[in-house]
Amino acid sequence: MTAVLTAAALLLAAGCSGDGADKPAESAARATESSGAPPSESAKASGGRTPPAKGAVDVERTVTEGLGSPWGLAPLPGGDLLVSSRDEGTISRVDSGSGKRVELGSVPGVAAAGEGGLMGIALSPSFASDQMVYAYFTTASDNRIARMLYDEGKPAGQQLGAPDTVLRGIPKGMIHNGGRIAFGPDKLLYAGTGEVGETGLSQDKKSLAGKILRMTPEGEPAPGNPLGDDSYVYSFGHRNVQGLAWDEEKRLWASEFGQNTWDELNQIVAGDNYGWPEVEGKAGKDGFHDPVAQWQTSEASPSGIAYAEGSIWMAGLRGERLWRIPVSGTDGGGEPQAFLKEEYGRLRTVVGAGTDKLWLATSETDGRGTPKKGDDRVLELKVK
Predict the structure, then answer these.
(1) In 3-state terms, what secondary structure has residue 252?
(2) Contact (CB, 8 A) for 297 and 251
(3) Which of 60, 147, 206, 278 falls between 20 and 30 A from 352, CA-CA?
(4) 195-228 tens-digit pLDDT
């Protein structure tokens, strides 16, 4: 454990984007590497298709504020929202109308440190009947995924049942713990993991680190996974995946932290190698799947993503902005647009709140922001 913590500390000191930290050494390296480069690049639509027309987004209202280190968001049937706190290890319910918060309870075993803690949450595909909430979190020994019964009939603070671990043994570190989980259109559970600062794990097909994993709701490797029915690995060669979303064509998209040069939005193909640590950004090298879009790390450091109105919407931490990347009607992606630049600080998670609405969580209280009165908050956005 000491060796892992020492390695993580060295990586942080050397300059590593992680959750969007802006270290002096890192800033200097990025300034040098980005000199003369365009502010952003994106893949153009292929096959002669024309990218969709540009759109926009407006902030309609603040749903709630005063949150501490919010990380995961999960919309409930009926319109309310579950929010996880990375550092506090709790899950709360937010009334989407009044903004009133009720703490459901704490997740036992959460060991919050560095970029680890209670991160992504997701509802069971059968939530209406089983009332199960899934969570990805860091313990003293690993990252793991567990499910808990949500019992509204119990008193506030006691509404989460004992965790039933569905997957354990995902490597943990002070940095790059991944943490996003989501159920896909196939009703299977997907998880984005990080390489915890040990770059070789991304290319190690036997490791759960630096991957997108796919499993059954019970935590077994999903039948038909590309590396065999005994493997959880759906794609590999990732540095730190914190965003997962599917479009109307059921294509999977993932956001990924770069190191010093390029952050990425990837279209995920089962079994493909996304390059880390051999390549960062678009390399055009055989055997590696290039990203659809890439950004200077100062412009993004992306976490959550969502799909709405023909586009992927991507929350930026260090970039402090919300990116829109048109994807419908294209084989790749249209030109990205930035919204809310430096208006609300670091942006952590974005999820769909209806056909043309999004919920967006800020991340100023995660130890790397500059909290202002009201931080952190959840905003409701209108997509136009």
Answers:
(1) strand
(2) no
(3) 147
(4) 999 999 999 999 999 999 999 999 999 999 999 9
Residue 125, class by beta-carbon neighbours within 10 Å (0-12 exposed, 13-18 middle, 19+ buried)? middle
- CATH classification at residue 242: 2.120.10.30
CA–chain centroid gap for 310, Å, is 20
CB-based contact 119:70 (threshold 8 Å): no
- Note down the domain range covering 46: 2-383
8-22 residue pLDDT tens: 333 343 344 567 654
pTM for the model: 0.89
What distance in Å separates the CA atoms of residue 158 and residue 146, rounded to the nearest whole number?
17
DSSP 32-60: HHHTT--SEEEPPPSTTPPPPPP--EEEE
Tell me if 182 sits within 8 A of 217, measured CB to CB: no
Q: Total structural domains in the chain? A: 1
Determine what percent of the chain falls in helix, strand and coil, rounding each to the nearest 5: 10, 40, 55
CA dist 210 and 194 (Å) reads 4
Query: Are 329 and 46 within 8 A, CB to CB?
Result: no
